[in-house]
Each structure stands twice: as structure tokens, then as C-alpha cells.
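About this split. The held-out portion is used to measure sequence recovery: a designer receives only the C-alpha cells and must propose an amino acid at every position. Recovery is the fraction of positions where the proposal matches the reference. Here is one held-out target exactly as it appears in the evaluation file.
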């Protein structure tokens, strides 16, 4: 889940608690318009809450802040610090992801040592202007071409998440579908249920039905 500060109607601490209780295990904090000190203060609080739950906390954009609060990693945009320099700041044990919007960018991220790529927007979204929707077919092409984990982003909802996972995404980055819901915990639980169902369906498609012993 992307904890986008601009999309919050409640405190980030409350939303994180609800998301964790629903089963969310990967939280990225994104604040595009706050001061660096505010981003540091919020990240410093949240990283302890998330880590106490045994989950991962990623800071968006700011490698130095991720290092300062001992986050699990950083998520970079195409205009942020290059991956190789982010790695020098964070060290080998931290996670570095990067947003990509084309096959060329995805391959470049892999070659630079990214641990995962975000790819999108898959569908039209108003949360961030990242260009036109890429669609399911392009998502499948990226997954077949790049071996590192692929996290799909952009306009993902309960209505289309099954399609996204079936196409090959290793996970989804969700903002509005959870953060704007009246029942944040319930929305997160429903999304996780749909993801797990789609993963099980994809497994059966790839490997066939499980065979019981003795059959």
C-alpha cells in the first residue's frame, strides 16, 4: 500500500494501524508536498510501528531520509537519485525500487540493480500524472522481459486486481482504493482476499491442479 499524504483524510498513524491489522505487509510512505523535516518526522514514527508488526516500510523519493530513519528501503522515481548512488547510501541489505513506465526503463532498472520495479499506470488514475494507461498487455510484456519482481500501479481496484495479478504482477501498489474508503480496514482486507484468490488461480493455470497423494 502507498500511504500517500495528499490522499489521507485521517492521520497516517491511524491509517497504518488499520492497514496492518487488515494484513497489509508492505507500506510505502509518499509525501510530495511536505517539508523534508515533516517527511522525516512522520517516517521516523511510522517505521517503528510497521517494523513492530513484522512488516516492511519504504520511503518514497528521499534516500537520505530512508537511511536516517533506518527504513527497509526507498522507492525512486525516474528523476530521483540514480540507483547506484542510492545503494551506496543505504547499503546492500536495503530494498531499492523504482517507478518505470516503459520496457526500456524496466530493463535499465534491472541492470542498475533495482530489487523491484513499479510499473504503470496500468489503468487511468488521478492520483499521479504518470502518462497514459499502459494496459494489461504491456504489463504482461514487461513481466516476461524482466525477471525482478514487478509491482503494478495505477487505477487498481477490487474490480480489476484479479486481471492484474493474472497478467503476471507480483504485487500491486494501491492508493485510492484503500485510502479513500470509508472502511479502510475492510477495503484492505477485500483487496488482499482478491489478490490471494488471483494468485491461486494463476498457480493452477501455470502448474495445473494439485494432485493428491495416491492419485
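Reference sequence for scoring:
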Amino acid at each position: 500500500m502507498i500511504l500517500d499524504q495528499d490522499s489521507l483524510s485521517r492521520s497516517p498513524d491511524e491509517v497504518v494501524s488499520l492497514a496492518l491489522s487488515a494484513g497489509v505487509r508492505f507500506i510505502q510512505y509518499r509525501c510530495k508536498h511536505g517539508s523534508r523535516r515533516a517527511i522525516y518526522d512522520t517516517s521516523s514514527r511510522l517505521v517503528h510501528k510497521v517494523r513492530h508488526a513484522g512488516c516492511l516500510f519504504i520511503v518514497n523519493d528521499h534516500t537520505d531520509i530512508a537511511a536516517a530513519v533506518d527504513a527497509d528501503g526507498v522507492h525512486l522515481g525516474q528523476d530521483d537519485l540514480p540507483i547506484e548512488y542510492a545503494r551506496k547510501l543505504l547499503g546492500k541489505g536495503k530494498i531499492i525500487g523504482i517507478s518505470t513506465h516503459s520496457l526500456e526503463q524496466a530493463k535499465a532498472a534491472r541492470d542498475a540493480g533495482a530489487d523491484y520495479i513499479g510499473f504503470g499506470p496500468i489503468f487511468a488514475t488521478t492520483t499521479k500524472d504518470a502518462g497514459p494507461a499502459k494496459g494489461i498487455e504491456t504489463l504482461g510484456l514487461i513481466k516476461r522481459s524482466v525477471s525482478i519482481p514487478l509491482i503494478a500501479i495505477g487505477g487498481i481496484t477490487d474490480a480489476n486486481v484479479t486481471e492484474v495479478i493474472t497478467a503476471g504482477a507480483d504485487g500491486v501498489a494501491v492508493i485510492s482504493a484503500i485510502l479513500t474508503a470509508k472502511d479502510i480496514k475492510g477495503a484492505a482486507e477485500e483487496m488482499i482476499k482478491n489478490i490471494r484468490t488471483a494468485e491461486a488461480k494463476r498457480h493452477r493455470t501455470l502448474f495445473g491442479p494439485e494432485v493428491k497423494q495416491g492419485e
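Annotator remark: The first helix runs from residue 12 to 22.
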